[in-house]
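$ run holo --ligand "AFP" --emit tokens
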Amino acid sequence: MRIDNHVTTIERFIMEREREFPEATGELSNLLYDLCLAAKVIAAAIRRAGLVDVLGSAQQVNIQGEEQQKLDVFANEAIKQALCHTGRVAVMASEEDEKPIEVPPNYPVGKYVVLFDPLDGSSNIDSNASVGTIFSIFRRVTPPGQGNLRDLLQPGREQVVAGYMIYGSSTMLVYTTGQGVHGFTLEPTIGEFVLSHARIETPPCGKYYSVNESNYARWSRGIQMAVRGFKGDLQDRIAGKNSRYIGSFVADFHRNLVNGGIFLYPADSKNTQGKLRLLYEANPMAFIAEQAGGAATDGTTRILDLEPRGLHERTPLVIGSRDDVEFVQTMLAEAGE
Ligand code: AFP
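-- output --
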């Protein structure tokens, strides 16, 4: 067996980058390691999802009243537990919690603000499709003490780190600190994330388009025209693409990031603000898309420039390869939208 000694673990990768910033205290790096730990805990639970169901039904007979937690609740708790007590965090927000998550009493409060979608695409778990976790990190803007809404409602351009974990055929962690996008794969035999995708760059024009076309009749004319273009109906304007849609944003985004492509969740007559959340889904993925050479808008405005008004605000989202995002904007402008 050939043993490769040249693996770069995520820890080594982060430390090497940290050395380039003498003012760095290492706190942000440690926050990233905390997230890696949460990712491993969640990945392990997901790997056993089918088995846990089997064990769960056996337990119902033998042990009174023990109910298996749903995986999205589990993932939410895993992240909170990994971050809450470390003194690195000022306040957090999760797609699963209505209100800001404060640092528990008697624990130190730090300077970073973390927002996360603990298990994106969780309705896909039963069918064994890929799901993910998305996170976004800011610096606090309020004075020391518990952080608050003001820390959480910052525009995406202020993010210091954004990333996601994808629990697929392998578990990957992809993140940016504003210096390119890097991907790490969990090597299960050693339990470490190792560098597998250094400096991911997304092609300017993508192979794929990803959108829930069952909403077609409810879209605006501009979006309908753009999607017709992607289907190959407007050959004089744009070449047709392949369609791929899982319905799990992290999985759709990841495929398009690596191969080139565009993901859309536009507004429609039922979801007038689109479906995806600005703070937990659109902002972090927009930071990553831009860092990989792509783009992200709500159709007219750059996602990272949107000023959030509420923790669970939704936004229309058009994200991916630069030329394809631009094409959607052009079609919307031509339709007067
Ligand atoms: P769930 O977490 O409820 O499965 O929602 C997933 C999601 O927010 C995002 O991951 C998908 O891209 C999108 O919804 C799919 O929505 P549609 O089912 O309406 O296409």
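-- notes --
DSSP finds nine helices and 13 strands in the chain.
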